[in-house]
Amino acid sequence: MWFRNLLVYRFTQDINLDAEHLAKALTAKAAKPCASGELFSYGFSAPLGKGADAPLVHASGDFLLIAASKEERLLPGAVVKDALKEKIEEIESAQMRKVYRKEREQMQDEIVQSLLPRAFIRRSQTLAAIAPKLGLLLVNGASANRAEELLTTLREAIGSLPLRPVSVKIAPSATLTDWLKNQKAADGFVLQGDCELRDTHEDGGIVRCQRQDLASEEIQLHLASGKIVTQLALDWQEKITFVLDDKLVIKRLRFADLLTEQAATDGGDDALAEQDASFTLMMLTLSEFLSALFEALGGEELPEPRR
Prior knowledge:
Elements: E1 7-11, H1 19-26, E2 40-45, E3 58-60, E4 63-74, H2 77-95, H3 101-115, E5 120-131, E6 136-139, H4 144-158, E7 163-165, H5 172-182, E8 189-198, E9 206-209, H6 217-224, E10 228-236, E11 240-245, E12 250-255, H7 257-267, H8 271-296
Antiparallel strand pairs: 1-6, 1-7, 2-4, 3-4, 4-5, 5-6, 8-9, 8-10, 10-11, 11-12
Keywords: Cytoplasm, DNA recombination
GO biological process, one term: DNA recombination
Function: May be involved in recombination.
C-alpha cells in the first residue's frame, strides 16, 4: 500500500470526482484476462481486496485510490526472429525465390499469433491516488510511460482528465545544486548520502554517489567544475526518505517505521482495515510533504485558470 515512487500531476481545472460515479465509469474499462490471441490486456481492478464484489474505487476521507492491472504475454523477440528465419529459409530453398518485406511482415504476424497461446503471462498493477480537494493525482511509479498508460485509460473511462505533471518556478536542478554546495537544504529537509552529478556539456560525464560523505572535498570539486545535481537523497522531518530528480520524480520513497506501525495499530487484526489505515495515513503525510517540498523548491508553477 505504501507508495515506493511518485509521479505527481496537477489538475488544471476543477473536476467533480466522487467514488460512486468514478467506480461506475471505470467499469467500462475494467481489467479482463489476456485472451489467447492478445499480446496484452489492460484495465482497472480493485485496489483493495479481491473478488467480483471488491469496488474499483477505494474512498477514505478526501482521497480516492484506484488501480490499473496489466496482463502481457511474454514472447521473446529472439524466438520470433529464429522462427521467421527458419520459415524464410524453407520458402527460399523450396521455391527458389526471395522473400520480400511485405511477405516477411505477414509471416512474422502469423508466427506471433501461433506462439501467443503458449507464451507465459506477466501480471502487474499500478496504483494511483486522487486528492480532488488538493487538485492532485499521484501515481505510484517512476516511469512516465507507465503512468501515462493509466492516465490515458482513466481519461477514456471518464471522458475528460484535465491535468499535467506538476512543475515548480525554479529549475529543480538549480535548487538541489545550491543545497549540496551549501550543505544545507530548506527547513525540514536534510541531505542524505546519495546524489547524481552531471556535466552540463553535451558529452559531459556523470558521477553517482551512494552512501558517501556529500560534504567531502571531492564532491565540492565536482560542483566547482560546473557539474549540477540531477538526483539527491533527502529526509523530510524524519517521516520520509526519498530521492528527488531534476524532473520532479520522487524515487525510493520510504516512510518511517513510526507511520507504518501506527497504521498497523489503527487497522487492528483486519487486513483490509490495515490497508485502509495505511492509505489514509500515507495520503495525509504526502499532502503535507508535497506542500513543503514544492515550497522548498521555489513554489509550484500553478496552471492559469480557464476563463
